[in-house]
Design goal:
The chain is mostly helical and about 500 residues long. The protein is about 45% helix and about 5% strand. α4 packs antiparallel against α19 and α9 (about 190-205) packs parallel to α11 (about 240-255).
Length: about 500
């Protein structure tokens, strides 16, 4: 089925993208009026570039650049190699779409989206929104692949691409806001595997110019392809959540374009027959208003968090708190001397999957409050090399980990908009030194400067691309709305 879906003729792709211009017949029943699902479908179909504010364009281009950068550096990881080899060896493909960090490699569109999605999340270095999800990685790879799939006569321009990207973000954000459960650090499903799949379907449906009813069916199909358990966090399987979200949402849009139908009430709360509500214990959906001159995208109100080092977002609070108390300790003792420390107290939220006292792999280390705090204390920084096997297994680090005690204050809730990190050093002398972080640099309340974001991108991209190509990508993203052919971005990778 996957292979057949990929064998789409250029004639069909052209008609899909110009479905209303050609009055193409859609063999699908229209969703009922005035439902949540139909309102989302109408929004996806009707929203136009002029509805994007300057703030939304600016923020989303920052997200696109950062996501490409973490995908490029992610293409150096073992889990990416596994995913790429899987796609190359097990699937015959229509190889038209680019792969991060592999200039000579092309894959079929949906498999390129999958592989690039895996790369994006392979180091847990990708952006994070509130309510908690990784929005860019679930949408951008699908759009990059789709832009290269379309025939020359119907290539979307840069503004079309930017609009589709923001449609994918908007759908993810709106769905997250339907549940109070989604506002906190998750416990059951990994959010991008749920809302990311829906966002990918919406974004791709927009880029392909699907009809309103096709957009509704794309969302319904995507809901049947969504979801991954949080138990696979801190394993090599977690990056698959992003890879599958972007790929399967893309496939949902392609299937809808082919005429496949799904439940036209998938986003509505229907008693006794769960649709999207199956993913959340509390679910209160609201219609999405038809866009007008005054429509405000969620990205306008809620900025994004960019990570300074490749680990779960929660680690950034404890690392900044640890760096703060480390400076106090050096001023106190003249140097960092672990032998003077009796106990290290971490005050963190309750979140089982990121409370890992002795991580044994890079993926566990990226999800360990203890590891990241102690690495920051010992080295004065956390970076890509911190998660190498040789760094994880250091004896001096293990000795620090042995001194860690975890506390969960009631006011420190597992919510990326409310949590804090505190690190206290209880010294053998009886003195206590404390560092606390309420908002780390890179959080939406303290966003990365343009200089910091570009520094991160150049550093990540330099692992696989020459300087000239890196600067070309920066310029292309910066001028994205002016591109006549958005596939130029994917081709530059």
């Amino acid at each position: 089925m996957v292979y057949l879906t990929l064998q789409i003729s250029q004639k069909f792709l052209a008609s899909s993208r110009q479905v209303h211009k050609t009055a193409a017949h859609v063999v699908a029943s229209s969703a009922p009026e005035e439902t949540v699902t139909s309102s989302f479908a109408s929004f996806i179909h009707a929203v136009r570039p002029e509805h994007l504010s300057k703030t939304v364009c600016h923020r989303s281009k920052r997200m696109i650049l950062d996501s490409i950068g973490v995908g490029l550096v992610g293409s150096t990881t073992h889990v990416f190699d596994i995913a790429l080899q899987y796609c190359q060896e097990l699937y015959s493909s229509v190889a038209v779409s680019s792969v991060y960090g592999k200039p000579g490699v092309k894959l079929s569109p949906t498999l390129a989206a999958f592989t690039n999605g895996v790369a994006t999340h392979s180091m847990d270095f990708d952006d994070t929104w509130h309510p908690a999800t990784h929005p860019s990685g679930a949408v951008l790879p699908a759009l990059l692949a789709a832009s290269q799939m379309l025939p020359p006569s119907t290539k979307p321009n840069g503004m079309d691409f930017l609009l589709a990207f923001n449609v994918g973000l908007e759908v993810q954000g709106r769905l997250m806001h339907f549940s109070t459960e989604a506002h906190n650090i998750p416990k059951r499903f990994h959010p991008p595997s749920v809302v990311g799949t829906m966002g990918s379907a919406a974004a791709t449906a927009k880029l392909l110019s699907l009809s309103t009813s096709q957009c509704a069916h794309a969302l319904g199909i995507a809901a049947s392809l969504a979801g991954a358990p949080l138990a696979n966090a801190a394993t090599q399987a977690k990056p698959l959540h992003i890879g599958n979200a972007t790929r399967l949402g893309f496939e949902a849009a392609l299937l809808a374009a082919r005429g496949m139908e799904a439940n036209p009430l998938i986003l509505d709360d229907i008693p006794g027959c769960s649709g999207f509500s199956a993913f959340y214990s509390v679910y209160q959906p609201k219609p999405l208003s038809t866009p007008n001159d005054h429509h405000e995208f969620l990205l306008e109100k809620q900025d994004i968090a960019f990570k300074r080092f490749p680990a779960h977002l929660g680690m950034h609070w404890v690392v900044d708190a640890a760096l703060s108390v480390r400076n106090l300790f050096i001023n106190y003792a003249g140097s960092f001397s672990p032998s003077l420390i009796r106990t290290i107290v971490l005050k963190i939220p309750v979140s089982k999957y990121i409370n890992r006292p002795f991580p044994s792999s890079e993926h566990q280390a990226r999800h360990s409050f203890q590891f990241n705090a102690c690495t920051a204390l010992l080295d004065g920084e956390v970076g890509l090399s911190s998660f190498a096997e040789s760094s994880i297994q250091r004896q001096e680090l293990r000795e620090l980990l042995d001194k860690v005690v975890v506390e969960h204050p009631e006011d420190n809730v597992a919510n990326f908009d409310k949590m804090y990190g505190e690190v206290a050093l209880l010294l053998h002398s009886g003195d206590v030194l404390t560092g606390k972080c309420d908002t780390f640099y890179g959080h939406w309340r303290k966003p990365l400067s343009k200089e910091s974001l570009l520094k991160k991108f150049r550093s990540n991209a330099s692992h696989v691309l020459p300087e000239e190509k890196i600067e070309t990508i920066i310029t292309t993203v910066d001028n994205l709305e002016n591109l006549s052919d958005s596939s130029q971005l994917a081709s530059s990778l």
